[in-house]
Specification:
Oligomer: single chain
Structural class: mainly beta
Number of helices: 5
Radius of gyration: 41 Å
Distance between the termini: 90 Å
Largest sheet: 31 strands, antiparallel
Strand content: over 45%
Length: 868
């Protein structure tokens, strides 16, 4: 029975070989030297579907293990050698077996050994090798000079291999592929440069590549522009090449500081916890005793939320213990950013932006000028809720603000706001037709509730006396508006406010509180005493406002004039409000004390959570005058536009405002404030100021108008203006126009290089100017002027320079100045940063590899305010 099966198998094999021989004889013929050459160009694709399985262990060594079809094709021809059981694929040959694919201009298939051999061919015209073998499998894609692969053992011998692993390009002279898809090579190269030949590479004496995981090398040294740098050399190398993030050790940086000594900084461990979050722990240690630890984490849940969290602590020691210059600080910082996907819950959102630190953290632990120059910080964690089909909404916030200059801090834990949008309680639902008087009566409400410490020192923020709680309520009643003479619109209203306090402050005069040791004199001071008790204040007012609009147009009759018309739009508004007297003794909100010269009245809530000073009876008339002046000119810049004329603003939103208290005993007219803006050559110029309408006598105002005394409107007490102008090359303007609709975040810069240069900007220049003028009665005027300059210049396509500077006219000094020069070296980048003067003067020079894989391959020379 077994012999019959063997005979059938042999017979089937002879029939198959005869058929293949018949087909191939029509395609090949021997030349004069007996070599087989294709007779004509054809494209042949053959599928070998033979599947044989061994039945016994004895026969398994000689039985084929190819259990899937092999598909092979070529653009030129596929001749066969039946005697040696070989097939030859000429010109763009391709062999596919399961997930393995091999392409080359010459492939030799050995049916007996179950292996393929491939190499490229010489191009007669260019004298270069073309059609080099390209091998693809699950581990990746590999290019080689020659390759021999066995389908049975799944091993290969490769010469001249070339592959890319996570941004790193690997070349090897002789490489062996194991059945586990690991590549062992000798005399290799590792680089991130895509030039051929590369500008630099690491010469690897021995290396092992585990695709999509790691590259491990033996002794290696740097070769720069084909010049070997033998010393220093790497005894071994470890290059992660995983396509997904993974856990690992974070290598520290080393150096020396003037104050804290030698250091190892930012060394630690990175934990790739899951696809939803990660964590990294880093530590700093200094030879003179200082140390620090940092932890940060990123998290994201798709379609729900994302964010990051970081906390840092630093224990800094400066100077020698026992000397006057010795100091020690304990600083910490917390940063948290959280955002919710807007589609997850439109009626309820949670967001966070926390940037909290002790006042000395940035001063002692920052390595950038931007952080060092930052004097104020703020944070907010908010929760908002809006009820559908309801006028009610709520927001709850945890707020923080601090000033590192005076070490004061404000915390609100929490702060809640409840709002009711305007409703019309007397209006029927789904009412139509003419509305009645009562249908137009509306009411709105807003309430603010807080528990906070306001402007307290950092070391007292956790003291119970530093915290206060309270609430503030505001209710507005809107009465029906009406019009007179068609052009004057009137809107009456009633406003009611109420405040709740958990504490209040009284003031006492202490005659000999201060002592001057130089003069030997004493002086008095006010002492503030806090009382923890519930107090309530309230006030209300009635108002009536009127507004209208006035247009004025001046037309130019000259047909040759480029200006067609000038239009002046005036929006006057007048409002009257009545406020009863809340300063009576029965209220108990105002008190007094006697100092050395007079009796002083004060409000017991002036230093409370919601500062409030009751006012007497007022009947105030408020004025506001808004002006817009623009002209219509001939559109000569855009000849393709359908509009013959264009509008050019002359003065935009020029406002004047003041109020007049008819019930005041004196100084009934308030200060007159004004503000406005204009545009010159595309640059916005903003200005504002205050005019005092009263005459002065010495260092104080007198109850007499300056207009009556001298004919002028009043005294200019303050004026400020600011504007900035930018100049850009035509290339930069074209680039902005092209990219203005791009999605934000597409063109991101490498995360490891904060000073990465954009070499696509030809040049741009910007300057910002601010001017502030102030003067008090009888005092000399104060003028502050600052000028800021910044710009970018591309000297060549590879050279770029940036600068930031300015000038303080009052101090007569140049402000913080920094110059940076960048050079694009293809796969490398050179940078030079220089701050020539000031407390933070420094310079740094660095040449580094651009790729983040070899970011530690760099040369640095610096002298900064913290490093030697």
């Amino acid at each position: 029975m077994r012999q019959q099966k063997i005979r059938k198998t042999i017979l089937l094999g002879l029939v198959l070989l005869a058929g293949i021989g018949y087909l191939s004889m029509a395609q090949i013929s021997p030349d004069a030297k007996g070599r087989v050459r294709p007779a004509k160009k054809v494209k042949k694709e053959v599928k070998d579907t033979t599947k044989v399985k061994s039945k016994t262990a004895k026969d398994s060594a000689n039985s084929p293990v190819i259990d899937s079809e092999i598909t092979y094709s070529a653009d030129d021809s596929i001749p066969f050698d039946f005697e040696k059981k070989k097939a030859f694929l000429y010109k763009n040959g391709k062999v596919v077996y399961k997930d393995i694919q091999l392409t080359a201009d010459y492939i030799e298939m050995d049916m007996d050994k179950k292996e393929v051999f491939a190499h490229g061919v010489m191009n007669d015209s260019s004298k270069t090798i073309v059609g080099r073998p390209v091998f693809k499998d699950k581990s990746g894609e590999y290019e080689a000079d020659t390759l021999r692969y066995n389908f049975n053992t799944k091993k290969a011998i490769v010469f001249g291999i070339l592959t890319e692993q996570s941004g790193g390009i690997i070349q090897g002279n002789k490489t062996k592929k194991t059945k586990d898809n690991e590549y062992c090579m000798v005399d290799g190269k590792y680089t991130t440069c895509d030039e051929d030949p590369p500008h630099f590479y690491l010469r690897l004496t021995k290396a092992k590549v585990i695709p999509k995981k790691v590259v491990v090398t033996g002794p290696a040294y740097l070769v720069l522009e084909d010049f070997p740098i033998i010393f220093p050399f790497l005894p071994f190398g470890y290059f992660p090449s995983t396509t997904s993030y993974s856990s690992g050790i974070l290598i520290p940086t080393y150096g020396e500081e003037t104050q804290r000594g030698f250091f190892l900084r930012d060394g630690g461990y990175y934990w790739a916890a899951s696809d939803y979050y990660d964590a990294a722990v880093r530590a700093d240690i200094y030879s003179k005793g200082s140390w620090g630890v940092k932890m940060n984490s990123n998290y994201k849940l798709r379609y729900k939320f994302s964010g990051s969290f970081a906390i840092s602590y630093a224990d800094n020691i400066y100077g020698q213990e026992g000397l006057p210059s010795y100091s020690k600080s304990h600083d910490f910082a917390i940063m948290w950013s959280h955002s919710q996907d807007s589609k997850s819950n439109p009626s309820q959102t949670v967001s966070a932006s926390v940037n909290f630190s002790t006042s000395g953290y940035d001063r002692n632990n920052s390595y950038s000028a931007q952080k060092y120059l930052t004097n104020s910080k703020s944070s907010s964690v908010s929760f908002t809720k809006k009820w559908d089909n309801s006028p009610f909404s709520m927001s709850m916030n945890l707020r923080h603000s601090q000033n590192s200059t005076d070490s004061t801090i404000s915390l609100s834990l929490p702060e809640m706001t409840l709002t009711m949008n305007r409703i019309y309680p007397f209006r029927k639902a789904n009412s139509y037709g003419t509305q009645h008087f009562w249908d137009k009566i509306g009411i709105s409400y807003s309430g603010d509730y807080r528990y906070m410490a306001n402007n307290v020192k950092e070391n007292k923020v956790f003291d119970a006396d530093s915290w206060e709680s309270g609430a503030q309520h505001n209710t507005s009643l809107e009465l029906p508006s009406f019009s007179l003479l068609k052009y004057f619109n009137f809107s009456p209203g009633i406003n009611y406010s109420e405040r709740w306090y958990s504490s209040y402050y009284t003031e006492d005069w202490v005659p000999d509180a201060n002592y001057d040791r130089y003069s030997g004199r004493t002086s008095g001071a006010v002492e503030y005493i806090k009382h923890n008790a519930f107090k309530r204040t309230y006030d209300y007012s009635y108002s009536l406002s009127m507004n209208t609009q006035i247009y004025g147009i001046f037309n130019f009759t000259n047909p040759k004039s480029k200006v067609k018309a000038i239009r002046h739009l005036i929006k006057p508004s007048i409002s009257f409000s009545y406020h009863p007297d809340f300063t009576g003794e029965n209220m108990g909100w105002m008190r007094s004390y006697q100092n050395d010269t007079a009796k002083v009245y004060y409000s017991i809530f002036s230093r409370s959570l919601y500062p409030y000073t009751p006012s007497g009876k007022t009947g105030a008339i408020s004025f506001n005058l808004s002006n817009n002046i623009e002209m219509k000119v001939l559109n000569t810049n855009d000849t393709t536009s359908k509009e013959k004329y264009k509008k050019v603003p002359i003065l935009d939103n020029l406002n004047f405002s003041a109020n007049y208290n008819m019930m005041a005993d004196s100084f009934k007219l308030s200060m007159i404030s004004f503000s406005g803006r204009t545009k010159i050559h595309g640059t916005d110029i903003n200005f504002s100021g205050i005019i005092d309408p009263y005459a002065t006598s010495g260092t104080r105002d007198i109850n007499e108008y300056e207009f009556k005394k001298s004919g002028s409107l009043g005294h200019l007490r303050s004026f400020s203006t600011s504007y900035g102008m930018s100049f850009k090359s035509q290339e930069e303007r074209a680039k902005e126009e092209k990219n203005k609709d791009q999605v934000e975040g597409k063109n991101t810069l490498p995360a490891y290089y904060s000073d990465y240069a954009d070499f696509n900007v030809p040049w741009d220049l910007r300057f910002d100017y601010t001017f502030n003028y102030s003067r008090s009665p009888g005092m000399p005027s104060q003028v502050l002027q600052t000028l800021g300059l910044s710009g970018n210049i591309n000297v060549t396509p590879k050279w770029k320079a940036t600068f930031t500077s300015g000038y303080d006219f009052k101090q007569g000094k140049i402000s913080y100045t920094n110059v940076s020069v960048f050079r694009d070296l293809h796969c490398w980048q050179m940078s030079f940063n220089f701050t020539p003067f000031g407390y933070r003067s420094f310079y740094s020079f660095q040449i580094n590899v651009k790729s983040s894989v070899l970011r530690d391959l760099k040369l640095t020379k610096s002298q900064t305010w913290w490093d030697r």
